[in-house]
């Protein structure tokens, strides 16, 4: 009897160990910590552009990193806290340097007919870093006599769908510490684990059900056909919808809008990784549709562009 009980106990321990190992080996989302637009605006790190008479502000991340030592220290501190908990990180400062070396910040994609797609600095950061989740960080220092504290907000944003998937915020206890990064660490310490639970829960859902992306279908004015043109007795819009249904994960997507000139697919679920373990983004997924339409019997010349990681546009009729 004792021997049987010992065997049962040993098996139980082995099962528990396997379960624990499985959790420890679970793949975690890749993160990138960035200062929020609010922080950049409050601290004067914005660029202003004239967009057809409307002034548009966008964050000047490069100048913020070059001029604000607190920013470097704060992001380094949050990066360290996340790394200690096993979350892979992309360093924002390094990503910005990569963008600079490739002169990607001012890049504009144009068609031969002059149509173009421009991207925000954040879209470019997302494409270069290829992080799963962007942690937007806002903080300010409060003073109470000789003591200081930090008030902060952290928002976990899905880099593909731009949906908020986790949030944390609060104010740390007043302290005599003069270092903003230390004050922030103290304020974040008791909230970061619940925040990370939210991040992991979202990532687990992505593993089970796929990422969400958006695909837009448009046409150039120069193209004589439209999305209601029939190919083999089937309208082109139906052909495209059938392809999205067949290739999206579990056939999950929403055809939000459709006319003879455009189609909009939202909440298109795609796998996180391809067969080689590489992350799949909207452009990579839509490339399959691009090639499908360019091949016989459709032979439609088309142009594929992307906005960030989560949106792809296929324009029919030209390159």
Automatic annotation (TrEMBL):
Signal peptide stretch: 1-26
InterPro entries: DUF6175 (IPR046173)
Keywords on record: Signal
Taxonomic superkingdom: Bacteria
Signal as UniProt keyword: yes
One matching Pfam family: DUF6175
Full protein name: Uncharacterized protein
């Amino acid at each position: 009897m004792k021997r049987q009980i010992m065997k049962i106990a040993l098996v139980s321990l082995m099962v528990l160990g396997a379960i624990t190992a499985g959790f420890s080996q679970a793949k975690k989302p890749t993160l990138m910590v960035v200062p929020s637009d609010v922080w950049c605006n409050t601290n004067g790190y914005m660029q202003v552009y004239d967009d057809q008479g409307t002034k548009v502000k966008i964050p000047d991340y490069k100048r913020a990193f070059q001029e604000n030592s607190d920013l470097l220290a704060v992001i380094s501190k949050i990066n360290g806290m996340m790394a200690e908990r096993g979350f892979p990180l992309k360093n924002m400062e390094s990503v910005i340097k990569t963008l600079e070396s490739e002169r990607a910040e001012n890049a504009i994609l144009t068609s031969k007919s002059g149509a173009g797609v421009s991207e925000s600095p954040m879209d470019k950061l997302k494409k270069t870093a290829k992080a799963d989740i962007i942690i937007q960080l806002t903080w300010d220092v409060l003073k109470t006599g000789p003591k200081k504290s930090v008030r902060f907000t952290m928002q976990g944003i899905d880099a593909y769908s731009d949906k908020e998937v986790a949030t944390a915020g609060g104010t740390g206890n007043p302290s005599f510490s003069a270092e903003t990064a230390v004050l922030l660490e103290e304020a974040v310490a008791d909230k970061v684990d619940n925040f990370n639970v939210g991040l992991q829960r979202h990532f687990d859902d992505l593993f089970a059900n796929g990422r969400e992306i958006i695909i837009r279908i448009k046409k150039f004015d120069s193209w004589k056909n439209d999305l209601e043109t029939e190919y083999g007795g089937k309208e082109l819009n139906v052909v495209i919808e059938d392809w999205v249904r067949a290739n999206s994960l579990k056939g999950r997507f929403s055809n939000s809008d459709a006319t003879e000139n455009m189609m909009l697919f939202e909440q298109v679920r795609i796998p996180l990784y391809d067969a080689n373990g590489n992350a799949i983004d909207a452009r990579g997924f839509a490339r399959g549709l691009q090639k499908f339409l360019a091949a016989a019997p459709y032979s439609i010349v088309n142009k594929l562009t992307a906005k960030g990681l989560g949106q792809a546009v296929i324009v029919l009729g030209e390159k």
